[in-house]
Specification:
heterodimer, A: alpha+beta, Alpha-Beta Plaits, Multidrug efflux transporter AcrB transmembrane fold, five-stranded antiparallel sheet, four-stranded antiparallel sheet, 18 helices, 18 strands, 57% helix, B: alpha+beta, 2 domains, 4 strands, 66% helix, 9% strand
Chain lengths: 565, 307
């Protein structure tokens, strides 16, 4: 008996020391100020990375960052490509993310066709989702000739005008308000067109002249082209931001789809541009045929042009260079559209024959980040299949800080309430139970650090819950001891009976909690997993602290004449 | 010795019919909530239903009315808007349940561009985004349904091993009763059923069993002692009275910490803590007024222990 108690005391001391060891990096990291961290980052970056690795990991909901689930669309792949499409997509995304420079990104497969990407500390949603989600299929396509474009647009107008007159009786839903609004837009367009009237006609795919001829106050007769504007020196058309959905809708109508030649397609630009205080999207009529694809690309780098506008310089393989030289040589003074995932990045006019080095202009609104990101996705290669973001969660740094602060406050308050209650109610025995609860929390945090578990906000809730539940074992034991003492047993006998009789109830009650925790671990997302981990560790540790550790202390108290309980 | 309760002698079993009436009414609510969830009528959170939720604040004053008007002008008329007052009076939560099969980021960027257009003088600073596509929501719904079933089956299985058949059935009915009751109350309070609420319900299933298990443990022990004398009802009553102070103390400490979480834990865990708080009360009540009377009624209909 005495010897086994000695072993237990040794074991407990060892566990306390081991916990200090496991928690030391977390203490060190959390007590560091931002300035200290910055200092280490600039002098010994590896030290900080090691420290972060050994400390308790904070979940995205506490640290802030981005959680994205992507679905790989395999519908257009053949049997062979389908097999490892997700793995290849995962590798390419990993490549892109690595180049983006985020510490400890987490990228893994989920099921057969989903990829989970976790980017701690990243908050620029648009930028990150563009970087991850782009298929990055780079293609060079020629534009349809101005003559063919004009004739197609005329046909579309005519077809839509006809469809509208047949529909007009049925469709009385259009409110006067809408009509006024459309008329206003119409007058805007007309004004713009007047403004451009003095410009000389251009042969390079500019269709300004066509729209000018069609200055018609009756917008009904131009149901489609009323939304298009054209400027000298720019290839393609421009569509006002608010008109874009309407234009997309019109283009998707079957009578319009029918008119578009089989080898042509309409494509919007990759981003909107601000022009005369209005946001515009580019719209282009392209030849479907891809003259050259991104697979011939060897390198891409962001640079600035002579006007300090960002652009991407690319280098092609030898074979790619030969193809490019042939295409550009045969189409001098015509626009060449550079498309990314079917959208037009830019459509510069070919001024001379280009071989293996070229430049992708990015327009005035693009930033150097845009150019950097485009270079990254071009270098990492195209995804084997398009991906779609099906889940997207972003937590800002202030919200994470807020959660940490509130979580810590609730843990401290909850803790104090329980500790105080136990001391008041059970006096010295309550103090012993409090030691057990404190050790429980201490061991729990140490186990989290040692197991590289992630602490989340629901996890903090789990800690609080554990504190509330951990005292239960001691309450059971103490109440039983009180009962046994009431029946007139000696202190020694009451303590023995109390521990022995309460034990089955304690174990049964805790195992049911463990069962639910195990189920929760397999349910859903990171935060819930964090809760399940804390709950099961907390319950297991509480069995040890509340039953074994307090028993050691009570064994010593057995010899006393009175028991404070 | 400080005691909340002196030795009590409350006739729990005698009051079982009142308890059956109360539980019956609340159970109907719970079942209604359960059916509503399966029919898709209940307020499922965006975790399960899919949708987009944005949180953030305006730099200058924007009222909730202005925000609502601006969003509905731009086609988001079903947006749910809540003012959060998180250190900033212009802090809002905007939630839309519309989902598309397209990229989920499109909805959040759509809303953000509306805000930028409608409030050009007051920049909206985004704090968090949750965008969940319909496919993810469905997966999570399926997972949650399985989780609930597996957890209940696991608990039932364990109780059957540890106790006999009647105790196992009574404990399982009590657990189901607790979960349904909490679900019903949340339904009446019009709380969204989110992944965290389901987590709370499952935690509760494990926790509320604690009380029942502790009580049954005592009933089992007393049945052995009183085999020769006394009757079944008084044995159960005595057992409930004996563990009563423990039940109340544990419930109080757990309730106190969850209340702290509810009050200072913040928005994220608010409903989670609420579900647990209701659950602790319900779980304590049910171990005394539901689990034991079931055993009692069963014994009365077909006596097994006291012939």
């Amino acid at each position: 008996m005495r010897r086994s108690r000695l072993y237990l005391i040794l074991l407990i001391s060892f566990l306390i020391l081991a916990s200090f060891y496991a928690l030391f990096p977390s203490f060190k990291l959390w007590s560091m100020s931002e300035a200290d961290k910055e200092h280490i980052r600039s002098t010994e970056p590896q030290d900080l990375i090691n420290l972060e690795r050994k400390a308790i990991k904070l979940g995205l909901d506490l640290k802030g960052g981005m959680h994205v689930v992507l679905q790989v669309d395999k519908s257009k792949l053949n049997e062979n490509e389908r097999r490892d499409a997700t793995e290849r997509a995962l590798e390419i995304i990993r490549n892109r993310v690595d180049q983006f420079g985020i510490t400890e990104p987490l990228i893994h497969k989920q099921g057969g066709d989903r990829i989970v990407v976790e980017l701690p500390g990243l908050h620029d949603v648009e930028r990150a989702s563009a970087l991850i989600g782009q298929t990055a299929q780079l293609e060079f396509k020629l534009m349809e000739t101005p003559e063919n474009t004009v004739s197609l647009l005329k046909k579309i107008d005519a077809a839509l005008a006809q469809a509208e007159t047949t529909l007009i009786e049925e469709e009385e839903t259009e409110t006067p308000e809408d009509t006024v609004e459309e008329k206003e837009k119409e007058s805007d367009v007309v004004k713009d067109l007047f403004g451009e009237a003095e410009e000389e006609p251009d042969t390079t795919g500019d269709t300004t002249s066509f729209l000018e001829e069609e200055e018609d106050p009756y917008y009904e007769e131009r149901p489609f082209t009323q939304y298009l504007e054209s400027y000298e020196g720019r290839s393609g058309f421009m569509v006002l931001q608010q008109d874009k959905p309407k234009v997309e809708l019109l283009l998707s109508r079957p009578e319009v789809q029918e008119l578009i030649p089989k080898d042509d397609e309409f494509a919007f630009s990759t981003r909107a541009e601000t022009f005369q205080n209005q946001k515009y999207w580019g719209l282009y009529l392209l030849k479907k045929r891809s003259e050259l694809s991104g697979k011939y690309l060897v390198d891409a780098r962001p640079t600035y042009d002579q006007f300090r506008k960002p652009e991407v310089q690319f280098t092609l393989t030898k074979k790619g260079g030969r193809i490019f030289a042939r295409v550009t040589g045969a189409n001098i003074d015509k626009p060449l559209a550079i498309t990314l995932d079917g959208r037009v990045e830019s459509a510069p006019i070919i001024r001379s024959k280009i071989r293996d080095r070229g430049v992708i202009e990015m327009g005035g609104v693009a930033s150097i980040e845009d150019a950097t990101d485009l270079s990254i996705v071009l270098r990492a290669g195209a995804l084997p299949a398009p991906v779609k973001i099906i889940e997207n969660r972003v937590i800002g740094p202030s919200l994470g800080q807020d959660s940490i602060r509130k979580g810590t406050t609730s843990v401290i308050i909850g803790f104090c309430v329980v500790l105080l209650f136990m001391v008041i109610y059970y006096r010295l025995s309550g103090l012993i139970a409090d030691i057990a609860v404190l050790l429980n929390l201490f061991f729990l945090m140490a186990a989290m650090a040692a197991l590289h578990a992630t602490l989340t906000m629901p996890g903090i809730a789990g800690i609080i819950l554990t504190v509330g539940m951990a005292v239960d074992a001691n309450v059971l034991i103490f109440e039983r001891i009180r009962e046994e003492m009431r029946t007139g047993k000696t202190i020694r006998a009451a303590i023995d009976a109390g521990y022995k009789r309460a034990l089955t109830a304690i174990i049964d009650a805790n195992i049911t909690t463990l069962i639910t925790a195990a189920v929760l671990f397999n349910l859903g997302t990171g935060p819930i997993k964090g809760f399940a981990v804390v709950l099961s560790l907390g319950v297991l540790i509480s069995l040890f602290t509340a039953v074994v550790i307090t028993r050691v202390i009570f064994d010593i108290r057995k010899g006393y004449r009175t028991l404070s309980i | 010795m400080l005691q909340i309760l002196r030795k009590t002698n409350i006739d729990f079993i005698g009051r079982r019919y009142y308890a059956f009436a109360i539980s019956g009414i609340l159970l109907i609510l719970g079942l209604a909530a359960f059916v509503a969830i399966f029919l898709g009528k209940a307020d499922l959170g965006i975790d399960f239903a899919g949708g987009t939720m944005l949180q953030g604040y305006f730099e200058k004053e924007v009222t909730i009315g202005e925000l609502r008007a601006a969003l509905s002008r731009n086609g988001y008329d079903e947006a749910f808007i809540q003012s959060l007052h998180r250190e900033n009076p212009n802090y809002f939560m905007i939630r839309v349940k519309t989902t598309t099969d397209e990229d989920v980021t499109q909805i959040s960027s759509g809303i953000l561009s509306v805000l930028a257009k409608e409030f050009p003088q007051s920049k909206f600073n985004l704090d968090s985004v949750d965008g969940i596509g319909p496919a993810v929501g469905k997966t999570l719904q399926r997972q949650a349904r399985w989780a609930v079933l597996i957890a209940l089956a696991g608990i039932l299985f364990y109780i059957w091993i540890r106790f006999d058949f009647r105790f196992g059935v009574a404990a399982t009915i009590t657990t189901l009763h607790d979960v349904l009751l909490v679900l019903g109350i949340l339904f009446v309070l019009q709380k969204d059923i989110t992944l965290l609420v389901v987590t709370a319900l499952l935690t509760l299933a494990g926790y509320s069993l604690n009380d029942t298990v502790v009580l049954f443990d005592r009933v089992r022990e007393n049945l052995k002692l009183f085999r020769k004398k006394g009757n079944f009802a008084s044995t159960i009553n005595a057992s409930i009275n004996e563990v009563l102070s423990r039940t109340i103390i544990t419930s109080l400490t757990t309730f106190a910490v969850v209340l702290t979480l509810f009050l200072v834990g913040g928005e994220v865990v608010h409903d989670f803590a609420l579900a647990l708080m209701i659950g602790i009360v319900v779980g304590t009540y049910s171990s005394m007024f539901v689990a034991s009377p079931i055993i009692m009624e069963w014994e009365r209909k077909s006596p097994k222990r006291f012939k």
